[in-house]
Design a protein that fits this description.
mainly alpha; 127 residues
Length: 127
Amino acid sequence: MNPSFAQMRRSLYVIGCASALSFAAPAQVLPPELLAAEQAVARAAQADADQYAPDLLAQARQGLENAQRAALDRRERKQAPVLAQRAAADADLARSRSEEAVASAQLEQRRAEVRQLQRTLGTGETP
C-alpha cells in the first residue's frame, strides 16, 4: 500500500521536529511545554485539521517553530514556554474545530437518512 501525501507530510514534519531537537546541546533541558505543544500539533494533524482548520494548524506549527527557536536561543529562552503554550492552544483549537466539522457532517448525513426514511414510510415505497 502506498502512503498518502498527508501521511508523508506528517512523517516529514515529525522527522523535522525530531531533527531540530536533536541538534540542541545535550546539556540543555527543553521546557516540558515544548513537548506538550509538539504532541498537541501531532494530535491536530491526526484529527485532519489540515483539511478542516488549516489556518489554525499552520499557526500552531509556526508557533511551535518559534518556541523551539526560542528554547535554543539563550536570550529568548524565557519566552519558549509561553510560545509553546500558545502553540498548544492553537493546535487544540484546530483539533476541536476539525472534530466538530466531522461530527456536524455525520449529523447532517444521519438527518438526511432520517428524512429519506420518513418519506419512504409516508409513501409506502421501498427504498
